[in-house]
TrEMBL record:
Residues 21-56 form the Serine acetyltransferase N-terminal domain. Its EC number is 2.3.1.30. InterPro entries: Hexapep (IPR001451), Hexapep_transf_CS (IPR018357), LbH_SAT (IPR045304), Ser_AcTrfase_N (IPR010493), Ser_AcTrfase_N_sf (IPR042122), Ser_O-AcTrfase (IPR005881), Serine_acetyltransferase (IPR053376), Trimer_LpxA-like_sf (IPR011004). This is Serine acetyltransferase. GO terms for cellular component: cytoplasm. It catalyses: L-serine + acetyl-CoA = O-acetyl-L-serine + CoA. It is found in: Cytoplasm. Belongs to the transferase hexapeptide repeat family. GO terms for molecular function: serine O-acetyltransferase activity. Its main location: cytoplasm. One of its GO terms (biological process) is cysteine biosynthetic process from serine. It is an enzyme of class 2 (transferase). It comes from the Bacteria.
Length: 245
């Protein structure tokens, strides 16, 4: 069942890519850079200096070559891309429109990965596999409007729903429902989000920290207990000086 869903997701992504056309897809990818990176100043700057865009461009070339059976040539093109950009994308991976890799060094995307539209990855992200069975999907499926923070690892044939934010350095080993935030090792859902792709979606400073929230909660409890204990010792609310009445 999961394999059928994965195959349907791959076919849908490929159909969307074919309908939109190669150059139209690249124009959409280019617009995505300006939408999500305030440092981008011009199209020429992006075309010449953005390794994430270079890696995506070469993958857009290699993927149909791989799909049509010329796998060695596709792998050579992919290897050249990795050498040039520091980003490794297997030519078998299926990637939707508006994909953006920010900074990019150390990003790894495995062979059976499926990525939806308008997805953002930061440096050091791994979309890795589990197992060695060539006949089955081994890598994750990411929905639309997903953001994956720096250093995060998403491993195995799991699904990350639409509108999910994965915190930096998280390790996600289980499927995640749509419109939520995942942090920690192993990854845990800590907050539900509104559907869509708001501007503040990219604000990493707003990512929740469950450990900090628990510590702050414990500090509030301790403060309340101290106040209650002080009141029991002195119901009038007057402080006793020097421990004497």
């Amino acid at each position: 069942m999961d394999s059928d869903k994965a195959n349907s997701g791959r076919l849908e992504a490929d159909r969307n890519h074919s309908r939109s056309g190669f150059w139209e897809t690249l124009r959409y990818d280019l617009r995505a850079v300006f939408d999500r990176d305030p440092a981008a100043r011009s199209s020429l700057e992006v075309l010449l200096t953005y390794p994430g865009f270079h890696a995506l461009f070469l993958h857009r070339l290699a993927h149909p070559i791989h799909r049509n059976g010329f796998r060695l040539f596709a792998r050579i093109l992919s290897a050249f891309s990795r050498w040039m950009t520091g980003i490794e994308i297997h030519p078998g991976a299926t990637i939707g429109r508006g994909f953006f890799i920010d900074h990019g060094m150390g990003v790894v995307i495995g062979e059976t990965t499926i990525i939806g539209s308008d997805v953002t990855l930061f440096q050091g992200v791994s979309l890795g596999g589990n197992g060695k069975d060539r006949g089955h999907k081994r890598h994750p499926t990411l929905g639309n409007h997903v953001l994956v923070g720096a250093g995060a690892k998403i491993l195995g044939d799991i699904r990350i729903g639409d509108g999910v934010r994965v915190g930096a350095n998280a390790v996600v080993l289980r499927s995640v429902p749509s419109n939520c935030t995942v942090v920690g090792i192993p990854g845990r859902v800590v907050r539900s989000l509104d559907a869509g792709y708001p501007e503040e979606f990219l604000n990493h400073q707003d990512m929740p920290d469950p450990y900090l929230e628990r510590i702050e909660s414990l500090e509030r409890i301790i403060s309340d207990l101290r106040e209650e204990l002080r009141f029991k010792k002195d119901p009038s609310g007057n402080r006793k000086e020097g421990g004497k009445e």
